[in-house]
Design a protein that fits this description.
Aminopeptidase, eight-stranded mixed β-sheet, disordered N terminus, two-stranded antiparallel sheet, alpha+beta, single chain
Length: 188
């Protein structure tokens, strides 16, 4: 894993292999995969709407790469043996807080793979970037994912008509990580 210790940023050549998954930054070649996931009515229903336009997604990725270089945002692509698994990102990075979100995965995967992407992003969030608090929202209708985040140690903050807002601290993650991985059949 490449991290720039002087600025607390992940280096431009960031790559990680963990729990049988390969992780790297999103690039323009991933635009079609991302658009296909996010415009899938079933998969994308709990995320903000994007255009069904690969070129627009490439433009968004080009703009994101500037934020990545500045250490303001990180967008991750997960695969297993060359097969795409999903994407998620860390954004709204301010001081020691940020948001881990925009999580979406390939349909019909073994159940543990999408959940492992959530463990990995939190490991990067808390252990590598040494952020202290993850503040995130989940669509109210996404009840399974709300339960799953609660199992990982998330705390309710408030809700509006659409979303439920949560936070998770580094301590919460440390306390619940082994138990959560145990549910997936992984011991650490």
């Amino acid at each position: 894993m490449d991290i720039n210790p002087l600025r607390g940023k992940l280096g431009k050549d960031f790559a990680l292999e963990k729990y049988g998954l390969q992780v790297r930054f999103v690039n323009e070649d991933d635009a079609e995969y991302i658009v296909n996931l996010r415009t899938n009515g079933k998969l994308g229903r709990f995320l903000s709407v994007i255009q069904n336009d690969v070129e627009a997604q490439k433009q968004w990725i080009r703009a994101y790469k500037t934020r990545e270089e500045q250490g303001l945002e990180y967008y991750f692509y997960y695969s297993q043996n060359g097969t795409p698994v999903g994407v998620n990102r860390i954004y709204n990075i301010k001081n020691k807080t940020a948001t881990a979100g925009s999580w979406i995965c390939t349909p019909d995967l073994p159940i543990e793979l999408p959940f492992l992407t959530l463990v990995i992003i939190r490991e990067i969030f808390f252990e590598t970037l040494q952020l202290e608090t993850d503040i995130f929202d989940i669509r109210k209708a996404n009840k399974k994912i709300i339960r799953m985040h609660n199992m990982m140690g998330a705390h309710f903050m408030y809700e509006n008509d659409i979303d439920v807002f949560h936070y998770m601290t580094n301590e919460d993650f440390k306390k619940n990580k082994a138990k959560f991985l145990g549910y997936l059949g992984i011991t650490i």
